[in-house]
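User: Study the fold:
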Amino acid sequence: MPVYVHLVRHAQGYHNLSYANHALPDPDLTPKGEEQCAALCANFPFHDKITHLVASPMRRTIYTCLLSFKPSVYDAESNPKGKKVLAISELQEVSNLPCDVGSDLSKLKEEFGPAGKVDLGRLTDGWNDKSYGGDNFPTMQKLEARAKSARRQIRDLAVEYLKQKQSQSQSDKKGDEEEVHIAVVTHGGFLHFLTQDWDGLTAQVGTGWQNTEWRSYEFVDPTGETDEDARLRETRVSWRKRRGSATGLTDTEQMELRCVVQNKIEMEFAGGKVPEIPEQ
């Protein structure tokens, strides 16, 4: 019973336009970002197979998910059998710059609650606290732990879904194989932690993912019985789509890039200080 996780970087936000805009708190998508969502919606081939929609609770990721996967999104009138977007706090972005700190839960409930399209049930007050010493303060150890937790939660969604479907199949005496397709919208920097793949990331470039770029993954152990880290690996089709016959990074090269990331994080956030925003 295959489980596919389609990882997506959010569409362009106003913070992507300049360094100065990193001072914007939890910024909106730009008009270009909305166009990127429309293009992804038009070209994504698995809308009819989506079983779960998941997003970081930041506004740009929630809106990217709602717009890009509109055919699958719950709507009380037009699509009552659709899926609500499940917000998972562990998927929030890496840094504690204002643009990477999410809105308070009360504000998210006010903005997204009335339509009923977003499930904020897993969030608690303080989910967006990135203060020094807290669970979300950006250190390598805490970021990797957060990514592991996110992967496990995503895998748990698949495991529970398959259990329910198997129970229904047995009662209905059907033997059809079920596939799970989970769309996850998160952030360029955090995607490297989530996938444990540092390809394309340098000390100067914070991510190897483009806005609304999507890649498909499978769990090394979809059952959760042998791999407590819930590791992901990119599907062959996804890799060939974007890289052709190219060879992936070696373990040594991945470790070297991880060291670059660790050094950058330690330099920027040592002592709990928020890095200065360059003028532009």
